[in-house]
Write a structure and sequence with these properties.
heterodimer; A: alpha+beta; Alpha-Beta Plaits; two-stranded antiparallel ribbon; globular; B: alpha+beta; FAD/NAD(P)-binding domain; Flavocytochrome C3, Chain A, domain 1; Methane Monooxygenase Hydroxylase, Chain G, domain 1; four-stranded antiparallel beta sheet; 16 helices
Chain lengths: 81, 583
């Protein structure tokens, strides 16, 4: 039997975190998703809230600045902090 | 994910890249002829894309009447770039610089003014006065967006351009790309294309090891350098790398331009000044490097001698514009400008004509060597052009492209080129398994650091080419699980092209020039007899990278020998070091 190509995930703590009580993604807001230059944020279909989908943050802050409810916080990624 | 669609669009002009130069180019093309169909194509979202997503804290090269003349500016940049300058391009910028500032001012960009309403100019360069602070410069993108809407420019966000289409005569015929969320394929036919995709900012690997911890916005992977090369355009002086003195780990600008006029300066570990001028140049970086080599490092930005109100002004500017997360970075490490100096380091390498001179060749009309292809901003080879140069050359590109397309038929899209690119782009998505784009990128960029970071050693550069050839094979094995990873896979291709161009361009110029940017250990002397020329890199008939020398245009503004040495005397002589300024 041939060897089976296998992938393994690397863990990473997301620098962008969301306050679910404030996020209005479930009301149709996508401001943070729209402005991220690297296209890292998305709305979780099950919760209706924003989340960080990819770990490629430039800590540039448009998402945090433009969020209408202050529901989003950007930390400097751990490797640089 | 639904099955990707193919969209075929037709425009008169497509602008690729909606950061700084791009929006200006699109607006100016529409102003020149409102009937033109103009598309601004952006990989991110025009509202917050590019190098100035969070605004800018100042103009680095404002030529303002009463403070400087276009002739003085052209002279300064000629000297700062070690003579390798077509003065017509720098002079065209300098003559238009003030008109660009006035236009931005009318649009609502805020510049610092004194009590009489004049621009509050500051001296940072070695010779003249060209810095105009923008303490309230956070709204630049908003201002540009309003102008795009007013001019009725069509905008398409989240589409990654990957190759240019050319017609049977080699002239531009359009752009190919894909949507980074749906993987839809885009065939955009056009009479002219303006490339404004920024620097190649993801070339070296930051010392932190974090892929996206770059100085430039990491969306700027060198896309335009790669696309221009494959379309047959010439690139110039790529060996004149961008290397910056940055805040260690954070890898953002320490901003000596902002703090300098307020009394801050670059210091060694004794808190002493060692360079006369903090303006970024290869010679300045050379002295920075020497200071580290001599055991006087680390190098710091020193502000701890300044008065409380000055520090507060600096904090307001630096923590509110350009890279505002800087305040958070310092707070977490307990760095207070009042009591500590800010540790700096030398960045990884990149291409950027906005800061140095490495770019796609353009003349003073923003035309590249390919008919119908224009370039502006960090990727266009007008030395030290910065943000204001990006706006100005964007203006030129928009205006001249509008003239070029007038009366011109839409060229046919060559089906063979389209299908070849479709196959190339989507291959990583169609594989069942393979290499993750981030891993290949990490290894490629680590090799860039290991072998290309100056001082440049010939043997190391030869090894680099072998390693890059192996990575080219790995690129054929990339696997993308979704359209987002497909975007990263495409970018690995751009980075690989830039890495190879950086190595080959550096090997071609067998002398040393531009301080640290091109210090060849095996050819340590500047050799004007053979190398007072541009180096031009282009794709030959076999599709390979080739090089040639290009004469420098005769100077219209003469440089006398004494002046020409100004940037070679940046180091402060030990006994004459001035006392740190009192605030």
């Amino acid at each position: 039997m041939p060897f089976i190509p296998t992938e393994i995930a690397l863990r990473s703590s997301a620098p962008v975190t969301i306050d679910h009580d404030k996020c209005i993604g479930d009301k149709g807001c996508t401001v943070c998703v729209d402005v991220c230059p690297l296209d890292l944020l998305a709305i979780d279909k099950s919760t209706g809230k924003a989340y960080m989908q990819f770990d490629e943050c430039w800590y540039c802050l448009p998402c945090q600045h433009d969020c209408p409810t202050g529901a989003l916080k950007v930390d400097i990624p751990y490797l640089l902090r | 994910m639904s099955t990707p669609q193919t969209h075929i669009l037709e425009y008169d002009i497509v602008v690729v890249g909606g950061g700084t130069a791009g929006p200006m180019a699109a607006v100016k093309a529409k102003e020149a002829n409102p009937n033109l169909k103009v598309l601004l194509l952006e990989k991110a979202n025009v509202k917050r894309s590019g190098a100035i997503s969070m605004g800018m804290d100042g103009l680095n090269n404002a030529v303002v009447p009463g403070f400087a003349t276009p002739e003085q500016y052209t002279k300064e940049i000629t000297i700062a770039n070690d003579g390798i300058v077509d003065q017509s391009t720098v002079y065209a910028y300098a003559q238009h610089s003030y008109a660009t500032i006035e236009e931005l001012d009318r649009w609502g960009v805020k510049f610092e003014k004194d009590l009489t309403g004049d621009y509050a100019m500051k001296k940072v360069h070695h010779m003249g006065t060209y810095v105009l602070p923008m303490p309230e410069g956070h709204n630049v993108k908003k201002v540009l967006y309003r102008q795009l809407k007013r001019a009725r420019v069509a905008i398409t966000n989240r589409v990654v351009a990957t190759r240019l289409l050319t017609d049977e005569n080699g002239a531009i015929a359009g752009v190919l790309g894909f949507d980074c969320r749906t993987a839809d394929f885009y065939v955009i036919r056009a009479k002219a294309v303006i490339l404004s995709t920024g620097a190649a900012g993801r070339l070296g690997l930051p010392a932190s090891g974090y892929l996206m911890g770059t100085y430039e916005n990491p969306t700027n992977a060198g896309d335009g350098y790669s696309m221009a090369f494959h379309a047959g355009a010439a690139l110039r002086n790529l060996e004149c790398y961008q290397i910056n003195p940055l805040i260690k780990d954070y890898n953002g600008p320490a901003c000596a331009y902002v703090t300098g006029p307020l009394g801050g300066f670059t210091a060694n570990n004794k808190g002493e000044r060692f360079i006369e001028c903090d303006y970024w140049s290869g010679q300045m970086m050379w002295e920075f490097y020497q200071e580290l080599q001599s055991g006087n490092g680390p190098v710091f930005l020193k502000l701890d001698h300044l008065a409380e109100e000055t520090i507060q002004t600096i904090e307001t500017i630096l923590h509110g514009n350009e890279r505002p997360s800087r305040g958070q970075f310092h707070a977490r490490r307990g760095t207070d400008y009042r009591t500590q100096m800010i540790e700096m380091h030398i960045s990884e390498i990149g291409f950027c004509s906005g800061h140095s001179a490495s770019g796609v060749y353009v003349n003073s009309k923003a035309e590249t060597s390919v008919p119908g292809l224009y370039a502006a901003g960090d990727m266009a080879a007008v030395p030290h052009n910065y943000m204001l140069g990006a706006f100005t050359y964007g203006w030129f590109a928009g205006r001249n492209a509008a003239e070029y397309v007038s009366g011109r038929e839409l060229p046919a899209a060559d089906a063979a080129q389209v299908e070849k690119e479709r196959t190339r782009i989507f291959a990583p998505l169609l594989r069942d398994n393979g290499l993750p784009p981030a891993q290949v990128e990490y290894k490629l960029r680590r090799f860039v650091n290991d072998y290309l970071q100056p001082p440049k050693v010939t043997r190391r550069y030869e090894i680099a080419l072998n390693r890059f050839a192996e990575i080219a094979e790995d690129i054929e094995q990339l696997h993308a699980r979704n359209p987002h990873e497909l975007m990263r896979a495409a970018e690995v291709g751009f980075i690989h092209d830039c890495a190879e161009m950086a190595a080959r361009a550096s090997l071609f110029r067998t002398e040393s020039r531009w301080g640290l940017y091109h210090y060849r250990v095996d050819h340590p002397q500047r050799n004007d007899a053979e190398w007072f020329v541009h180096t031009e890199l282009y794709k030959n008939d076999k599709g390979e990278i080739a090089h040639r020398k290009k004469e420098i245009e005769p100077y219209s503004i003469a440089i006398d020998t004494e002046e020409g040495q100004a940037y070679n005397r940046l180091r402060i002589k030990k006994d004459e070091a001035p006392e740190p300024q009192a605030a």
